[in-house]
Amino acid sequence: MTALERNDDGLIERLVQRFLYVFPAMDTREQRVALTMYRLLARGRGVTAGQAAADCGETPALVQTCLARWPGIVWDGPAVVGFWGLAAGAVSRHRMRVEGCTLHTWCAWDTLFIPPLLGHNAQVTSTDPVSGAVVTLTVTPEGVRDLSPAGAVLSMLEPRAEMIEDIRGRLCRYIHLFADPDAGAAWTRQHPDTLLLSVDDGFELGRRRNLSRFADVLGR
């Protein structure tokens, strides 16, 4: 599918359910650990299991067990430097400025769903892989604003279970921001099974997934 999907609630809900199916479900304590990892890593430096445990009030053993079991964790010695789309180092063309700290994400969609988990606005900059144009936007817990160019779009790939062990290589590398639908369509034609979403729909996809995955802890 290459056409831009606009306001297709059925498509968004299908993608939400696929992301929930593919990625590990979490109980309340695990949700607390994951949210803490995001928020500590957003300070721009690696996070140890001990630091996360002290911050979220869980035991170091539980945190270590979660981090050892979950896919999508990048380590530098004893510290986590990459966690489910958020990185302390420069790993991609997708950047976020949050509370004065410059962060990078694994894909363009990460810049849409991570800021609401952090509870802060993010100034996002990404590069269109076709035209080289810079796409900028502000992502708030409530939505997207100041999108430039105004017609920018997001590519997406429906996740499959076999992608989980190599999230960056098999999923994230297909999710980008494009300056306009024509650039996005040119790219998706060359990448089977990818599709285009409006940026607002990309945010809505992330919002619904966040509310489901972190149902017990968001807002606390």
Please, could you describe this protein's structure?
By secondary structure, the chain is an alpha+beta fold. It has a domain at 4-23 and 86-213: Beta-Lactamase, CATH 3.30.450. It is 38% helix and 24% strand. The protein has eight helices and 13 strands. The chain has helices at residues 9-22, 28-41, 49-56, 60-69, 110-118, 167-170, 181-189, 199-213, and strands at 4-5, 47-48, 73-76, 79-83, 86-87, 95-98, 101-105, 122-127, 134-139, 144-148, 153-157, 177-178, 194-198. Strands 2, 3, 4, 5, 6, 7, 8, 9 and 10 form a nine-stranded antiparallel beta sheet that branches. A hairpin with a 2-residue loop joins β3 and β4. α1 packs across α8, α3 crosses α4 (60-69) and α5 packs across α8 (199-213). The longest helix is centred in the last third of the chain and has 15 residues, at 199-213. It is globular and about 50 Å long. The mean pLDDT is 94.
